[in-house]
Design goal:
Radius of gyration: 22 Å
Distance between the termini: 79 Å
Strand content: 5-15%
Family: Belongs to the bacterial solute-binding protein 9 family.
Pfam family, one: ZnuA
Organism: Candidatus Venteria ishoeyi
GO molecular function, one term: metal ion binding
Structural class: alpha/beta
CATH superfamily of the largest domain: Nitrogenase molybdenum iron protein domain
Number of strands: 8
Helix content: 40-55%
CATH topology of the largest domain: Rossmann fold
CATH class of the largest domain: Alpha Beta
Number of domains: 2
Protein name: High-affinity zinc uptake system protein ZnuA
């Protein structure tokens, strides 16, 4: 009898785990979805708040999403602009939902204009004025992946060993990606590139580049600043302006015309993280090559 009981125990509980409903995980943007799915795989079902083609700066959650959050197991936030307004409302509406900040443990950098203020002795920037695009540095992605692994293990300890194995595989791939990009971009160290929206600061720091941003805090430059920027671009022979697909490209195109350059779209919000960073690196190589 004891033998049959043990057989039932060891057969039933793994099957119970295998057929358990996946954890409902919410994230703000698509790159987070990639990281959570790499670690959670069939144990998670990931929903993204900011949909394809939408901007995290102007996004507002839908009533359907707010209702679905009542059944979620976990929310991973990351610091994108819509969270500043909506995260407090979300937690008031769904107080039982655990919210985990993937910025924890990451060295956050100020946006370009706040960096300028610091150099002139002004106050230290608030958390809301820090650059939220942390995921574009692969080593930051590894820190986020650790947090995801730990949180999934906390709410689903039965599958802790699976989450650890998948994290290790993801970490290995991200380290390899970082080394490939570092080698590819090393010949262009200290060179500047021009972007409309300042999305690529962490990527630039990772590979020794410097980002020049046209937009600051969501605002286009004034006439005087625009003239200075065009003059600088001409002096440094910058011929490419990088833009995000989620933003209007009209002003970027006017600036490109003024410097006899071109506009190229690269998407920091694309879901396939490794492929997207490789594509971005290729675009930077083309733009920075003489």
């Amino acid at each position: 009898m004891r033998f049959y009981f043990l057989c039932f125990f060891f057969l039933y509980f793994p099957l119970q785990s295998a057929f358990a409903a996946p954890l409902s995980i919410f994230v703000s943007i698509f790159p987070q979805k990639y990281f959570v799915e790499q670690i959670g795989q069939s144990q998670v079902r990931v929903s993204v708040m900011v949909g394809a083609g939408q901007s995290p700066a102007t996004y507002e959650p839908t009533p359907q999403q707010m209702a679905q959050l009542n059944h979620a197991s976990l929310y991973f936030r990351i610091g994108v602009p819509f969270e500043r307004v909506w995260m407090q409302r979300l937690q008031q509406n769904v107080p039982q939902l655990p919210v985990v900040d993937l910025r924890e443990g990451i060295d956050l950098h100020p946006l370009p204009n706040h960096q300028h203020q610091e150099k002139h002795g002004h106050d230290k920037p608030s958390r809301s004025s820090l650059d939220p695009h942390i995921w574009l540095h692969p080593l930051n992605a590894i820190i986020m992946a650790k947090t995801i692994r730990d949180q999934l293990s906390h709410i689903d300890p039965v599958n802790q060993s699976l989450y650890q194995q998948r994290y290790q595989h993801l970490e290995k791939n991200l380290l390899q990606l970082h080394e490939v990009l570092k080698k590819q971009l090393m010949p262009f160290a200290k060179q500047r590139f021009l972007v409309f929206h300042p999305s690529w600061g962490y990527f630039a720091k990772a590979y020794g580049l410097e980002q020049l941003a046209i937009e600051h805090e969501g605002k286009s430059p004034g006439a005087r600043a625009l003239v200075q920027l065009i003059t600088q671009a001409k002096q440094e022979a910058i011929k490419v302006i990088f833009v995000q697909p989620q933003f209007s490209q009209q002003q970027a195109q006017r600036i490109a015309d003024a410097i006899a350059g071109q506009v190229i779209a690269i998407d920091p919000l694309a879901e396939n993280y490794p492929e997207n960073l490789r594509r971005a690196a290729d675009a930077f190589v083309v733009a920075l090559s003489p």
